[in-house]
Amino acid sequence: MIVELGHYALVLALLVALVQASVPLVGAARREPAWMGVAVPASLLLLALILVAFLALMRAYIVSDFSVANVADNSHVLKPLLYKIAGVWGNHEGSLVLWVLMLAVFGAAVALFGRNLPATLKARVLSVQAMIASGFLLFTLFASNPFARFDPAPAAGSDLNPLLQDPGLAFHPPLLYLGYVGFSMTFSFAVAALIEGRIDAAWARWVRPWTLAAWTALTAGIGLGSWWAYYELGWGGWWYWDPVENASFMPWLLGTALLHSALVAEKRDALKSWTVLLAILTFAMSLIGTFLVRSGILTSVHAFATDPTRGLFILLLLVIAIGGALALYAWRAPALSAGGVFRPVSREGALLLNNLLLVTAAATVFLGTFYPLFLDALGLGTVSVGPPYYIATFVPLMLPLLLAMGVGPLLAWKRGDLAGALSRLVIAGVCALIAGIAVWWWKSDGPFMAGIGIALAVWIAGATLVEFVGRIGLGRLAPRDTLMRLVRLPRGTFGMTLAHLGMAIAIVGMTGSSAWKEEHIAILEPGGSIAAGGYEYRLDAVTRVEGPNYWAYRAQISLLDGDEVVALMTPEKRFYRVQRMPTTEAAIRTTGLADLYAVLGDPNGEGGWTVRIYHEPLVPWIWGGLMIMVAGGLVSLTDRRLRVGAPSPVRRRVAGEAG
Amino acid sequence: MRRLLYILPLALFGVIAAYFVAGLDPERDPSAVPSALIDRPAPSFTLDPLDPAMPVLASDDLRGKIMLVNFFASWCLPCRAEHPLLQRLAQEQNLPIYGIVYKDEPDAIRRWLDDLGNPYAMVALDPDSRTAIDFGVYGVPETYVIDREGRIRFRFAGPLDPVTIETTLLPLLAELRE
Amino acid sequence: MIRILALLLCLIAGVCLVAIVPAFAVEPAEMLDDPALEARAREIGRELRCLVCQNESIEDSNADLARDLRLVVRERLLAGDSDQQVLDYVATRYGDFVLLQPPVKPATWALWFGPASILLVGGAVAFFYARSRRAAPGILPLSDEEQRRLATLTGDGPREKSDP
Questions:
Q1: Cα–Cα distance between A310 and A296 in angstroms, integer?
Q2: Contacts of residue C98 in chain A, CB cutoff 8 Å?
Q3: What distance in Å separates residue A521's CA from the closest CA in chain C?
Q4: What is the CA radius of gyration of chain B?
């Protein structure tokens, strides 16, 4: 009954979305306030209906209603509650409901919090958002119905893939979707602006909070996914350049470029049509990612059930949305007014460079991901593009970007003083050089790039601190003035400082773990040990334990520092009964400077066990750095200026007179 | 000129979308690996026979006739599915099929062949799978067509089916026999 | 879940899968005694794709085929092959698809030279754009006095010239 209610709610939602997609749009063209006024209540109603559907599906999971095909395929009575709930989005149909839910959330957010938007723009933005929602609701209802019933209902479910029964994976999709789908809002703003035929600095400011929100969520989502892969898969790796990983990375790269280009559009009224194009392309990447995961055109460990007919539907959505937007762009963009002037050496110039490198990087990842498909379609053979390609092409693009990241914030708008900026950065440069040389000397047998990576990270951290210190006048002004400046610092500035610092820390982590990771494998009998990274790992015993829906071999490994037992590590090898899948649960101990990673392997039948130890230097800094970046994004979001927006009573009166 | 630049994103997108459509072609299998040895000489091998009474199976001895080489195992369900088709091929086409065992025990193979029948002119063992690797085998069953000069002309990964036999295999054999 | 498995099996045309489960790779028994050779073997292994897995190298997979190829790599190294010769040995049998770093040949020129080309073209476009921004008269920027008046009007308060 509740399931039918959910289904019905979804159908109603489609109808509401169709109305929301058309009426306000026409109303904006005709300047009919009543018609435009439909947008806000429609958005809220849409959210309410989709929420009902989502909750109905969730309830079916929680009570293990196996008459619902989706639940039967992906859940089991014995599954822990958290994973029953997370199982809602751990499959294709349910995750689509999450997709449209996020679309509706963003629509409602703009409806509620976009009070300062001009009526026509707001109506158009919400209309475009509803168009996307209609497309996805159509797809869900006609090709991926999560509420389809089995009759008769199976007694037990098929259980969720054991790899997905994990807290990391429970939170990864919602955050990822918040980001992915969040860029639909910047897309809607871009298309609405093209329809309006006008983009100005105010538009860029209105777009900013949504771009920030989406970017922050996507950063968190990717970080969480990466962290999950690290501790769950048992290799100690955190990035594999898998096509689906790339599918989330490309929108992130473009989204970062968008964040920075919107800055120029807002402050200097320049790069406007480029920002619009970027907004369209970022969401295009989100859609392409969705397409990739669900259509089966590329093989990946992440792919959902691959189904070419579903793929065709998503492709159709993609072509209509992006093709339409780009066509609109080709038609309307040339008429947009040109913007502010600036010299190449200026903050605008630096941000332009930032955009150039990030977009090239995204294009590189795109090329690598889809090249096998391109060649195959042309009948030119099959090649395989793996991590070695990306390391050879992506990393070199990042080097100049990281260098520029230090200088950019110190350049003034419109006309920057490069010599002046560099002279302020001498100390950062010197520290970076010392760090690089120290690394080369201390780890002379390690890879060459390690020194460069660390040096660049120190450079960015140093440059960011120099900029921050200069801004609050530390050492230059009286302490009280400095404190005043610190307190009154716009949150956006603080956010930038945090985000750039977080990036530097993350780079240290990435460099360290890639360059100096150690792997030791041996067959151990109880009492035997492996030495790694200055510690000794002694296998004490292996016992068999029972879990809710699995049984496992659990090893007890004593971590010895010298003669002292510092910790006990308990890696497991689990066997899930229903899915008959083994998984490894690594034991990870963080020292802050490194991760000590122990994995239990197979028994050799003679009392010995394969034990794998990874010593991962600096890996915790990756997660730490990413968290600081996310914090920076969140801090920026709380900037008062974003909430107040551009117009105030005086402006509105002026705008009204101007008509 | 400027106008052209604005149309570029749309044009590029059109090209990419076309590739995506091609990628959705149901005939396409993204995990299929084409053989690297088509039209190249078959790898040479000398393998022990399943039946100790038979002579060693050496690739040199096989020169001069058209034949099939089929990698199989008793634990492989699709191999069981294609088995009757292999028997028909061997009988109707008067075609020697040489079976090479992939990661299996001789006793298990003997039982399997006793159960289902033996379509093979000879069965050979490949205990360390080196011959399989030389052929580029990545799963079972896999079937290779080898011509009179000892070159591989066709490789089919997966169980043979009537359609493939009709449309690809038989015409190829007819051509080779000319 | 059953449907997913069925589709997977169909997609690979019935070729028997050997455990896709990510667990481990090199077993102690496979490892070479010489640590330098073993390190080379691992490096080479990371450049070879496991053909029955979803996007893993033979170092990261416990599939039988991956194990066989790891042993082959080590055999060839012991026989004195160079890194490139070992890769060629495997690629001759399995095709370019097995190489995770695609070879540079006419079919892959777009792949390898693409990024640099995009950077150059993008750079040229950016350069000409920046130049036009310098030359174009455009709207005259506001003077400092006018900036302050505007800030007061919009209620933004006094701002630093170099705010982001």
A1: 9
A2: 384
A3: 6
A4: 21
Distance of CA A38 to the CA centre of its chain: 32
CA nearest to A358, candidates C154, B62, C22, C122: C122
Higher pLDDT pick, B35 / A41: A41
CA nearest B27 in A: which residue?
A: A308
Q: What is the ipTM of this complex?
A: 0.84
Question: C95–B35: do the CB atoms touch at under 8 Å?
Answer: yes
pLDDT for residue A306 is more than 70: no
Mutation for testing the C interface, residue in A254, A389, A391, A466 having most C CBs under 10 Å: A389
Residue B151 has pLDDT above 70, yes or no: yes
Q: Which residues of B touch A369 (CB under 8 A)?
A: none
Cβ-Cβ contacts under 8 Å, B10 against chain A:
323, 326-327, 329-330
Q: Are A573 and A601 in contact (CB under 8 A)?
A: yes
How would DSSP label each residue in A399-427? HHHHHHHHHGGGSPSSS--HHHHHHHTHH
CA nearest C20 in A: which residue?
A301
**Structure-token pair, residue A133:** 């929602």
Among residues A410, A420, A531, the alpha carbon closest in space to that of A460 is found at: A410
Residue A530, pLDDT above cutoff 70: yes
Does C17 contact B at CB distance below 8 Å? Answer: yes
Rounded distance between C-alpha atoms, residue A458 and residue A453, angstroms: 9
Which of A207, A44, A24, A211 has the alpha carbon at shortest distance from A119?
A: A24
Burial (CB < 10 A; 0-12, 13-18, 19+), residue B96, is middle
Give CA–CA dist A598/A611, Å, rounded.
7
Cβ pair C17:B142 closer than 8 A:
no
Chain-centroid distance, C-alpha A432? 29
Give the distance from residue C37's alpha carbon to the nearest chain B alpha carbon, in angstroms. Answer: 21
Location of structure tokens 């992906």: A74
The answer to whether residues C81 and C90 touch, using CB atoms and an 8 Å cutoff, is no
Helix (H, G, I), strand (E, B) or coil at B29: coil
Helix (H, G, I), strand (E, B) or coil at A553: strand
What does the alpha-carbon distance between residue A410 and residue A402 come to, in Å, rounded to a whole number?
Answer: 14
N-term to C-term CA, chain B: 60
Pick the closest to residue A612 from B91, C85, B107, C22 (CA basis): C22
Residues in chain B: 178
Q: Is the dihedral of CA B86, B87, B91, B94 positive or negative?
A: positive
Omega within 30 of 0 (cis) for the link into B141: yes
- pTM of the predicted protein model: 0.86
